[in-house]
Automatic annotation (TrEMBL):
<feature type="active site" description="Nucleophile">
    <location>
        <position position="81"/>
    </location>
</feature>
<comment type="subunit">
    <text>In the presence of PdxS, forms a dodecamer of heterodimers. Only shows activity in the heterodimer.</text>
</comment>
<keyword id="KW-0808">Transferase</keyword>
<feature type="binding site">
    <location>
        <begin position="49"/>
        <end position="51"/>
    </location>
    <ligand>
        <name>L-glutamine</name>
    </ligand>
</feature>
<dbReference type="InterPro" id="IPR002161">
    <property type="entry name" value="PdxT/SNO"/>
</dbReference>
<keyword id="KW-0456">Lyase</keyword>
<feature type="active site" description="Charge relay system">
    <location>
        <position position="177"/>
    </location>
</feature>
<dbReference type="InterPro" id="IPR021196">
    <property type="entry name" value="PdxT/SNO_CS"/>
</dbReference>
<dbReference type="GO" id="GO:0006543">
    <property type="term" value="P:L-glutamine catabolic process"/>
</dbReference>
<dbReference type="GO" id="GO:0004359">
    <property type="term" value="F:glutaminase activity"/>
</dbReference>
<feature type="binding site">
    <location>
        <position position="113"/>
    </location>
    <ligand>
        <name>L-glutamine</name>
    </ligand>
</feature>
<dbReference type="InterPro" id="IPR029062">
    <property type="entry name" value="Class_I_gatase-like"/>
</dbReference>
<dbReference type="GO" id="GO:0008614">
    <property type="term" value="P:pyridoxine metabolic process"/>
</dbReference>
<feature type="active site" description="Charge relay system">
    <location>
        <position position="179"/>
    </location>
</feature>
<keyword id="KW-0315">Glutamine amidotransferase</keyword>
<dbReference type="Pfam" id="PF01174">
    <property type="entry name" value="SNO"/>
</dbReference>
<comment type="pathway">
    <text>Cofactor biosynthesis; pyridoxal 5'-phosphate biosynthesis.</text>
</comment>
Length: 195
């Protein structure tokens, strides 16, 4: 089969690292900023950044409802950090009303924004990740954690007892940033699930 076309939502955040990681994982990677670009991709990566800003831009650019519709329709997606927050069905501590992070609803879970931030802003840890050989070096930057998962959601990794990587069907989310480490196993897991 030919390489799947994977979009990276490029409104804000660490787009470039995901494009590189996806290409190394064997995908055709393109940026998505407009509806026509969203319509063309087989799957989407939502990068880290600031979920409130991304939500605002999604609404401004009339992408919010089309993106929700594609996810509801089963378009596979992978979200890291802010992307994990947006892929949730429910967000705790979403932010100031009117400028809050808006759930897109790909994964049946409640995600708490800046959850680790109350203890320590950013940290790195080697954690076990279900389905990957050996541990993975996980970089957390003002990271969320998952507070509730639905029955169909598989927890793949935990940090400090909290779920930080989850999968529901072909939807994947991590609270950490594998794109910044050079370890392509998480991107490969996602890309291979598309074939
Ligand atoms: N705290 C950010 C948010 O609420 C996420 C941080 C990140 O993506 N590194 O969106």
């Amino acid at each position: 089969m030919s390489a799947p076309t994977v979009g990276v939502l490029a409104l804000q955040g660490d787009t470039r690292e995901h494009l590189a990681a996806l290409r190394e994982a064997g995908a055709e990677a393109v940026t998505v900023r407009r509806l026509v670009e969203l319509e063309r991709v087989d799957a989407l990566v939502i990068p880290g950044g600031e979920s409130t800003t991304m939500s605002h831009l999604l609404r401004e650019l009339d992408l919010l409802e089309p993106l929700r519709a594609r996810l509801a329709d089963g378009m596979p997606a992978y979200g890291s950090c802010a992307g994990m927050i947006l892929l949730a069905s429910e967000i705790a501590d979403a932010g100031v009303p009117g400028r809050e992070a808006l759930p897109l609803g790909g994964i049946d879970m409640t995600v708490r924004r800046n959850a680790f931030g109350r203890q320590v802003d950013s940290f790195e840890d080697d954690i076990d990740f279900n389905g990957l050989d050996g541990s993975i070096h996980a970089v957390f930057i003002r990271a969320p954690w998952v507070e509730r998962v639905g029955a169909d959601v598989e927890v793949l990794a935990r940090a400090a007892g909290h779920p930080v990587a989850v999968r529901q069907g072909r939807m994947l989310a991590t609270a950490f940033h594998p794109e910044v480490t050079g370890d392509r196993r998480v991107h490969r897991l996602f890309v291979e699930s598309l074939r």
